[in-house]
């Protein structure tokens, strides 16, 4: 009887030890998974470039290619840099860069301060929602003719969301995977607003400043979307080409921990895994 109780007690002890071990192992695996919840990495970085500039084709895309990174380029449909260089944009798309929609003529609300550059033709406050939607869909048709793709993201010109208090993107949610806004922030994956994805606007930023933003995203287990215009010139809103290169060098060195991908891929990943 004593021997039987000893065996029973010993068996229970082993079961308890096994259960504890499995529990600890599962917790460790879960913690590791949570720590690397961005496609197996600690955080995600999205590099976006607005306004379809020559320098994007001449300097930025070759630089991204040299580091094996893919970016998102938000194109203005009516831009001569689009119409005159379609084969080059098509080649960029074939390499994996996203051609995003930045509307047909880049309308902004001319009633807001600092909008002296807005003309009567490009004043969003003069638009109807129907006009905005039609022009954006026309741009989607153009972009599909260039890259052959059905999925892409949108970027608000000047970060303006409304036409006479109406959120015009509400009529376009089925046309895009997501829309990039201009408000900075590090969000939990489950809190992302795909109608207004946060981004960090860069103008005159140093590599040190941009790297610090990436490190903060990693610390928070979040992601960061960079918003560039000129990179080495061609736009009043500009980041030095070498500072941009230093950022890419840092991202390349941290490739085991940082996922660099186009906006459309990161948005799809969040939707598929956390929504």
UniProtKB/TrEMBL annotation:
InterPro entries found in the cross-reference section: Glyco_hydro/deAcase_b/a-brl, NODB_dom, Polysacch_Deacetylase
GO biological process: carbohydrate metabolic process
Pfam families: Polysacc_deac_1 (PF01522)
Keyword entries, A-Z: Signal
GO molecular function: hydrolase activity, acting on carbon-nitrogen (but not peptide) bonds
Signal peptide: 1-31
NodB homology domain location: 43-261
Xref: SUPFAM superfamilies: Glycoside hydrolase/deacetylase (SSF88713)
Protein name as it appears in the record: Chitooligosaccharide deacetylase
């Amino acid at each position: 009887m004593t021997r039987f109780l000893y065996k029973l007690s010993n068996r229970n002890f082993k079961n308890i030890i096994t259960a504890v071990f499995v529990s600890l192992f599962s917790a460790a695996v879960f913690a590791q998974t949570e720590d690397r919840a961005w496609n197996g990495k600690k955080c995600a970085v999205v590099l976006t470039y607005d306004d379809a500039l020559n320098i994007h084709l001449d300097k930025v895309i070759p630089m991204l290619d040299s580091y094996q990174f893919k970016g998102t380029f938000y194109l203005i449909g009516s831009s001569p840099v689009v119409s005159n260089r379609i084969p080059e944009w098509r080649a960029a798309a074939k390499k994996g860069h996203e051609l995003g929609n930045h509307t047909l003529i880049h309308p902004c609300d001319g009633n807001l301060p600092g909008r002296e550059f807005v003309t009567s033709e490009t004043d969003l406050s003069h638009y109807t929602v129907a006009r905005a939607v039609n022009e954006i869909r026309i741009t989607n048709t153009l972009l599909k003719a260039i890259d052959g793709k059905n999925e892409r993201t949108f970027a608000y010109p000047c970060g303006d969301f409304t036409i006479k208090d109406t959120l015009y993107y509400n009529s376009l949610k089925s046309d895009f995977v997501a829309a990039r806004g201009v408000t900075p922030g590090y969000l939990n994956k489950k809190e992302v607003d795909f109608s207004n994805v946060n981004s960090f606007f860069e103008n005159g930023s140093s590599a040190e400043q941009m790297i610090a933003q990436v490190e903060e995203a990693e610390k928070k287990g979040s992601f960061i979307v960079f918003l560039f215009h000129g990179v080495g010139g061609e736009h009043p809103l500009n980041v030095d080409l070498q500072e941009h290169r230093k950022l890419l060098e840092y991202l390349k060195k941290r490739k085991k921990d940082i996922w660099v991908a186009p906006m459309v891929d990161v948005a799809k990943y969040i939707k598929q895994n956390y929504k």
